[in-house]
Amino acid sequence: MDSLLKHMVDMTGHRDHTMLDISVISAVQELAGAAQTRVFSIATVRGQQFIRSRAIINSGSPARMEAHSDHHGASAPILVCSELKACLARHDTLAERIGADGARTLWLPIWIGDKADTCLEIVHPIPFSSDTLHVIKGIVSVYRNFQNLLDYSERDSLTGLLNRKTFDDQLAKMLQAASHADMPLAQERRHPVSTEKQWLAVIDVDHFKLVNDKFGHLYGDEVLILIANLLQSSFRAQDRVFRFGGEEFVVLLRSTSLDNARRIIERFRSNVAKYDFPQVGNVTVSVGFVSICVSDAPVAILGHADQALYYAKSHGRNQTCHYDELVSSGLLATVASNDTAEFF
Ligand SMILES: Nc1nc2c(ncn2[C@@H]2O[C@H](COP(=O)(O)OP(=O)(O)OP(=O)(O)O)[C@@H](O)[C@H]2O)c(=O)[nH]1
């Protein structure tokens, strides 16, 4: 019982999804005496379900995060766990596979509302006793509630998008991980190591004050919600969309080429321009984007994207501008300061 309480205190002491994952698999592993415990994400891409391992613990070893770049490998079609696929289709909470040697693999999807995008997997050489199963289910319930709470604190209440604080955390983590690992971030702006990079786009609704003034704040709010929906449907599952504040949004685009980044951003911009907003009619957005360099400070990366956005705003709006192109064509100037570049 002491051990269970210790794990509960540990799990609920975290303010971070990764640490919560690590503590839940450590708790399950110890309390169930499992051979292996894993937590993975379940994502649907073009109608197909995939699983992606997030953290794992093997008997006798410490728990660890599953390190992988955001784009390549690491995902497996859910068909490798056919029992889990069937369980998800039934909206059920438990699936089991019995191996030829009698070993059990247990899957416990974490349902939040009618969505399960996280699952625990426990491998055990023999069947679990009903008491152990009861404890595991209890841990899963605490994990689900706490994940729900963390999710709530990371999101903007109007649009449901990730909020500014989450953006700050995720960009800092992305830069930190890239500086320790061989991730496809540009090392230096003039010498990219790969044609695939991470990108940051800042999006601002054009003349949004006019929408509020003419139609009122409720219609203004509805426009923001509909733009958030268009953002989520226009970008890919591995990209991250944030509401930065007011009528400004930020997208982190993962591992793609300049041409792809531009095409995806332009697809979104034109989706907004074509959309018939109830009552309000036509709304447009301007976008500034930049490649993320591991050597740049977050404030400099945002500053560059903002400069490109400002250029788009002051040259007609309803357009996408790429920071590096503006600089190389002489339309924006940079001044080298101590360790970053600044603009005037
Ligand atoms: N309805 C609504 N309005 C908001 C919200 N947050 C910020 N705003 C409004 O967004 C407007 C932003 O106006 P400005 O910064 O002047 O920019 P703009 O009118 O979009 O003009 P440009 O950016 O130059 O195209 C202000 O009127 C804010 O009150 C919100 O959550 N809901």
TrEMBL record:
EC category: transferase
Reaction(s) this enzyme catalyzes, per UniProt: 2 GTP = 3',3'-c-di-GMP + 2 diphosphate
SMART domains: GGDEF
GO CC terms in record: plasma membrane
EC number: 2.7.7.65
GO MF annotations in UniProt: diguanylate cyclase activity
Pfam families: GGDEF
InterPro entries: Diguanylate_Cyclase (IPR050469), GGDEF_dom (IPR000160), Nucleotide_cyclase (IPR029787), Rev_trsase/Diguanyl_cyclase (IPR043128)
GO biological process: cell adhesion involved in single-species biofilm formation; negative regulation of bacterial-type flagellum-dependent cell motility
Superkingdom assignment: Bacteria
Species annotation: Massilia psychrophila
Protein name, UniProt field: diguanylate cyclase
Boundaries of every GGDEF domain copy: 196-325
